[in-house]
Task: inverse folding
């Protein structure tokens, strides 16, 4: 329920549902994921990263570990820790090659770190998986400045806006 609310932009309701789940089971990985998403979408990137770190500690190789790495990478990117973002994004892609958001984080992080050629390779991979990819794909309810930062990283990576 928490994730449904979060991804429909109802961050407060999503956080409430995730907190209820955590009160019932403090080891509920998806509840920690929900809290992390709520924090990220509210703009508290450091707290979000703490939640995603907990997800990786509780379930490092589980079905959704690619999400935990991908979103951790996004947090590191937004904190300006591009090398750490690259590591998480690569871990996410290694777990699930078609996870486009991880490739987005990887391309933007590589570009911000100055590895423009490698970033361009990732943009090409994004286009292989999603030929019509554009800025509208980044539709998570991020804070406007966070979305703009990620899109600027993609622009630096060579993704031209349609």
Result:
């Amino acid at each position: 329920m928490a994730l449904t609310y979060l991804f429909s932009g109802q961050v407060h309701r999503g956080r409430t549902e995730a907190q209820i789940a955590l009160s019932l089971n403090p080891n509920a990985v998806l509840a920690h994921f929900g809290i992390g998403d709520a924090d990220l979408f509210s703009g508290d990137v450091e707290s979000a990263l703490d939640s995603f770190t907990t997800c990786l500690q509780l379930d490092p190789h589980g079905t959704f570990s690619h999400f935990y790495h991908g979103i951790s990478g996004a947090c590191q990117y937004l904190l300006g820790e591009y090398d750490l973002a690259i590591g998480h994004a690569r871990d996410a892609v290694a777990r699930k090659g078609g996870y486009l958001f991880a490739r987005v984080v990887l391309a933007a992080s590589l570009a911000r770190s100055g590895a423009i050629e490698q970033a361009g390779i990732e943009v090409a991979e994004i286009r292989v998986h999603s030929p019509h990819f554009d800025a509208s794909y980044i539709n998570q309810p991020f804070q406007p400045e966070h979305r703009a930062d990620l899109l600027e990283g993609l622009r630096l990576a060579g993704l031209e806006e349609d």
User: Anything to note?
Assistant: The two ends are 35 Å apart (CA to CA). The CA atoms of residues 138 and 147 lie 7 Å apart. The chain has a mean pLDDT of 94.
